[in-house]
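Q: Here's a chain of 134 amino acids. Please give me its 3D structure as tokens.
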Amino acid sequence: MNRPKTYTVAAILQLLISGIIVVFAFPMLFQGPAAVEQAGDEPAPYFVIVLAFSLGLLGLVSAYGVWRNQKWGVVLTIALRAVDALLALPGILFGPTLALKLFPTFEVAISIAIIVLLLRPKSRLVTPPSTELT
């Protein structure tokens, strides 16, 4: 398979960030809304946890699409990273603790990096001029 190196890096980053989101959202998702509210430390609303988990699962699928050099994977990854970055922006501004401000900052930076990697033009192979004598 002839996959650009930028796609390889973007697929790995997408897999990592989506995996992290799924792993952290999974326990909170199945505790239910009442358990999340009792956790204290101003937890995220339950619908945000459901949304994050859903975006994480879609992110795993899109990482596979990018890895396989599929156009749908690239489009889905760009869309997911844009939505995820927009959803993380309020956390940067209004996060109650330093940790809840740093993680969204990291997430927005990774999202921008993945989008840039996927939108970079593919390198073109330049063939040298023919040295045949005719």
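Q: Can you summarize the key feature?
A: The two ends are 35 Å apart (CA to CA).
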